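It is worth pausing here to work through a concrete case rather than discussing structure prediction in the abstract. The textbook approach is simple: state the sequence, then state the predicted structure, then interpret. We follow exactly that order.
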Amino acid sequence: MSKMPMVFVGHGSPMNAIEDNQYTRNWREIAKKIPKPESIISISAHWYTKGTRIMNEENPKTIYDMYGFPKELYEILYNSPGNPKLAEHTKSLITTPNIFDNTWGIDHGTWSVLVHMYPERDIPVFQISIDATAPPEVHFKIGKELKSLRHQGVLLFGTGNIVHNLLLIDWGRQDNGFDWAHEFDDFIQENIENKKHENVINYISLGENAKLSVPTPEHFYPILYILGATDGEDKISIFNKGYTMGSLSMTSYLFV
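Step two, the predicted structure:
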């Protein structure tokens, strides 16, 4: 089977689930550009756990892991089936300790994007959690271990934000970023494009810009899984290069 592309999406606000904007339109376009996956495995910033956890339910639930948003958001049901057989195989590929865990579900990091990409909800989806106790190198290594799934019709889907600092949000800056956000986002982009993955893994070396852009790592780590699963032949496209409220970058990557 030919190799499936991969996507890292800057998902931004949950409101994107119900909005029609440049970001959501591009998500829809990306889905048209790539082959329809047989299954989707999502690594979402919003499932951040001790150790690696994998869903293996037949019908994972929709999780509303956000507060104070319009009622319409809490009525979205992303009721795609799960894929227990693929979950079992995925578990066997990951060499670091991992367990099945169905206490979570499909969270807004995943469904706020997939409602636009695959609104039919007919593709099996499950999530792998991000191990909060593991260093960046381990997330990259897990990505490497998942690489073979690309030849089995699986879309590896990372969802977070390269720059994500909610404490420094400036509501007056709807469409532009702080200088430090641009600098960090550009540094990561340059190293992804040049396939210098060690610099992305060692993002903290950027000092103050890294601390401001990645005050906690859960929104950054999903890109490491995707980079781990790349090969030398992948062509990289950047889409949704942009910023919102100063301290969030929406920059997204397609690997084909």
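Step three, interpretation. Residues 6-255 form a domain with the Protocatechuate 4,5-dioxygenase; Chain B fold (CATH 3.40.830.10). Residues 187 and 200 are 9 Å apart (CA to CA).
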